[in-house]
Amino acid sequence: MQKFNRTFWKHKKVLVTGGSGFLGSHLVNLLKELDPKEVFTPGSFQYDLRNLDACKEVVADKDIIIHLAGIVGGIGFNLTNPATMFYDNLIMGIQLMEQARLAGVKKFVAIGTICAYPKFTPIPFKEEDLWNGYPEGTNAPYGLAKKMLLVQTQAYRKQYNFNAIYLLPVNLYGPGDNFDLQSAHVVPSLIRKVDNALVQGENQITVWGTGRPTREFLYVEDAAKGILLATQAYDKPDPVNLGSGMEVSIRELAEKICGIMGFRGEIVFDSSKPDGQPRRRLDVTKAKREFGFSATTSFDKGLKKIIEWYRNNKGKL
What we know:
Layout (H helix, E strand, L loop, with lengths): L5 H4 L3 E5 L4 H12 L4 E3 L11 H8 L4 E4 L7 H6 L1 H21 L4 E5 L28 H21 L3 E6 L1 E3 L12 H15 L3 E5 L5 E2 L1 E3 H14 L6 E3 L5 E2 H12 L4 E5 L14 H7 L7 H15 L4
Parallel strand pairs: 1-2, 1-3, 3-4, 4-5, 5-10, 6-9, 7-12
Antiparallel strand pairs: 8-11
C-alpha cells in the first residue's frame, strides 16, 4: 500500500462529518496520527447538517472536508425508512458541498455507496457501469441520494473548478460497528444473532433471504486508509471503488461466523424476506493505480477481530 504523505497534511484544517460514527472514528484516529493542523468532527446534536446554517458554520476556514455523515442501515431499515434515507442523505451532501465551495474549501471528499450501482451489474463492478441501470429496489432511495453527490462533484468541478472527488466503498465491517438488530448490516447482525442463540441456549438462527446472494466486505481500518490516500493523492472527476476484491455468499458468511463463534445449531434461511442485490464484487484496480490503495486485512482475520471486539464490548451496546 502507498505510504501517507505527512507533508500534505501538515498545515491542513480538516473537517470530518460523521467523525464519531463507525467509519469516522477509525478515520479520525488515523488522521490524527498524520498530525494535521486541525481535525474538526462536529456532532449531529450540535450541528444538524440538514440545516443550512449548520453547514455554513462547520465549513468555515477549512482546507479539506471528508463527508462521511449519513443515515445508514440494513435492508430492513431501508425498507421502513425510504423517504428518510433519500432526503436526509441528499440534503446533507448537497448543502455541505455548496457551502464548502462558497467558503473556498480546497478539497471535498464525498463518500458514496456500493448501493448506487445498478441491481444487475456485471461482476466485477466497474466504475464505468455505475449508470447502466437502476439500483436494487430495497436500497434505491439511499443509493440514488448518494449517487447524486457524484453528479454534484463532477458539475462543480466543471463549472467552478472545485476540487471534489467521489469514492465508492463496499460493505464495511469491523470493531465499533452497529449491532442493533433493527438497523445493523449483515455482518454485525449475524454476530449478534449467533451470540444471542449461544447465550439463550437456542439451536437455530434465522437469516433473511435465501443465502444465495454474495457480498464483498472491506475491513473498516482498510477503508479509512483508502479514503485518506485518495484525499492526499487523487484529484480527478471519475468515481473510484474502494474494496477488497473478495466475494462470499450470505450462506458462507453465516457459516463462517457460526464456526468462529462456536455455534453448532441450524441456520434457517427465511426466503420470504428480500435478498437485496444478487451479487457484489468490485473491480478495485483503479484505486491501486490512482493512489496506491489495496486492502491488507483478510476477511477471516477481520471477522475474528470484529467478533472479539463484540464479545469484549457487548455489555456496553
